[in-house]
Design goal:
Two copies of one chain form a homodimer.
Chain A (H helix, E strand, L loop, with lengths): L8 E4 L5 H13 L4 H11 L4 H4 L5 E5 L4 E9 L6 E9 L8 H15 L4 E6 L4 H9 L3 E2 L14 E6 L4
């Protein structure tokens, strides 16, 4: 389903049963970034609705034993016909540097192209410098940090990636 | 654009400029339900993406002077072709009892039908008894509260409303 994954890992679209599994790994993988407020922020950014209504444009990656290795939650913009949006991506830090994030984004770019999208957008917090470096390597252009982007105190860096024609 | 609104109020689809305006009224309208944690919860449930990518299935209602009176943020499920989802609705408490919420849901039901949807879903927190009574009056069926529905500690009541054929 996804090209470029390391041996022993497979990808599929998520089901609603994956929602608590993804929330459970978030805290481990994010290493407690921004403490308890960060934990609540991450949980609230992934309500169950994403695992009910946007499953066909999202992925989970698992080991042979079913253990979660990575996920990507994204959707096709409903009001911007040329835009696809990546809402939340996570890769087990023990597996960083093996191209899993790149493979997930690659699969999403293909999906976006198949839906006639020309631009992929996403945001991250300014504290998450690893995420910013990762997106820049993938060809995204970063905005300056925007204060209160997502609400009071919720500063964000916005990323844009134009898709090449297939 | 919407039938059944009181005189002096008009509805339109939101733009990204409405995002901070909606967040600003949330605290007033929700009366500080669940305190600071509730405030953060509400802000995080409405990231800017809803005012960028789901504007065509969402509404804001304004007074003649532009003051916000109500809003509804919803979308057509991307993975469940028969389902439409109402994510967040607010009405100025000073205007409660005048049918504005009902008018917003009525408009969303019409939109959902026009998109071939047969079911509308939404969730609320068990503390929000006014919301539960409102949805029951509108013909929604409530689930029992589901612990950790949206994540650890985030209990929700889930509502379902079957749409009559047009």
């Amino acid at each position: 389903m996804i090209d470029g994954l390391p041996d022993g890992l497979t990808a599929r679209h998520p089901t609603v049963e994956d929602h608590p599994r993804v929330l459970a790994v978030l805290e481990t993988w994010w290493g407690g970034l921004k403490g308890e407020a960060g934990a609540l922020e991450r949980a609230l950014l992934l309500p169950r609705l994403y695992f009910q209504h946007f499953t066909t444009t999202s992925y989970v990656v698992e080991h042979r034993d079913g253990q979660l290795a990575a996920f990507l939650v994204g959707f096709m913009s409903q009001s911007e016909p040329d835009t696809a949006y990546v809402h939340f991506v996570g890769v087990d830090p023990a597996l960083h540097g093996r191209g899993i994030g790149q493979a997930l984004y690659g699969a999403f770019f293909e999906l976006a192209r198949a839906h006639g999208r020309r631009v992929v957008r996403c945001v991250t917090s300014p504290e998450n410098t690893a995420s910013q470096a990762f997106h820049t390597r993938l060809g995204f252009t970063a905005s300056m940090p925007v204060d209160d982007y997502d609400g009071p105190g919720l500063t964000r860096v916005a990323f844009t990636r134009v898709l090449e024609l297939a």
